[in-house]
Amino acid sequence: MKLQIQAHSIITPASAQANGELVLSNDRKHPFNLFGKELYRYLSIQYPKFFKMDELCQLAFLGTELLTTHIENWNGDKVAIVLGNRSASLSSDKRHYQSIADRDNYFPSPAVFVYTLPNIMLGEMCIRYKITGENTCFMMDRMDAVFLYTYVRQLFEEEQYHYCITGFVNYSDDAYVGELYLVSSQKNTNAPLSRGFDKNFNQIIF
């Protein structure tokens, strides 16, 4: 089965890029809670729930938004998500812990507690993009391209998916990166990229 990368996005503290082109630069070196909102507005997204998400979910959400601009519609049953992550939901976990640590000032927030699992990132992506295929997040120190490639290829071969969003999304209080790839078995002449998907897929050089 021939698989191709149809789109790529990467968001770092320096910038947001899609398919090798700069989308928005973070020249003012804003922290993500500001840069992410700036990118959201720049992309003219209308999805108020974005502002309730934690940073990890926002990072994955924005990366997916950059990734799927050429997709007019898709069958969510035929779309999977396979991501890697290092810090899980540690940033939200700390905020939740701070809200319950003081027994005399005990105000746990349901809005924070709901984000104390990294899988909620997948849930937010599935809700937004109507994805009902397999969605899985693996813990890894950095993007393990060989592992992701092997897992994603097997999904395509055994489950006949049309698309899979894969890559590495990680947020911590010190650093963040969201690097996503849209892999497909379907031809799409509107796709911004058409590059082979192999075990070195993360070495795309623009």
Question: How would you characterize the overall build of this protein?
Answer:
A hairpin with a 3-residue loop joins strand 1 and strand 2. It contains six helices and eight strands. Helix 1 (32-42) packs parallel to helix 2 and helix 2 crosses helix 5 (119-129). With 206 residues, it is an alpha+beta fold. Strands 1, 2, 3, 4, 5, 6, 7 and 8 form an eight-stranded mixed β-sheet that branches. Helices cover 32% and strands 24% of the residues. The model has no long low-confidence stretch (mean pLDDT 92). The chain is globular and about 60 Å long. 35% of the residues are buried.
The poorly predicted ranges are none
What kind of sheet is the major sheet?
8 strands, mixed
Q: How many beta strands in the DSSP annotation?
A: 8
Distance between the termini: 25 Å
Proportion in helices: 25-40%
Strand-and-helix sequence, N→C? EEEHHEHHHEHEEE
What class would the helix/strand composition place it in? alpha+beta
Into which percentage range does the β-strand content fall? Answer: 15-25%
Rg, alpha carbons: 17 Å
Mean pLDDT: 92
- Given the C-alpha coordinates, what overall shape results? globular
Number of helix segments?
Answer: 6
How does the SSE layout of this entry go?
Elements lengths: L3 E8 L3 E4 L2 E5 L6 H11 L12 H13 L11 E7 L4 H12 L8 H4 L5 H11 L5 E5 L5 H15 L3 E9 L4 E9 L10 E2 L10
Short description:
The protein has 206 residues and is α+β, with helices and mostly antiparallel strands. It is built from six helices and eight strands, in the order E-E-E-H-H-E-H-H-H-E-H-E-E-E.
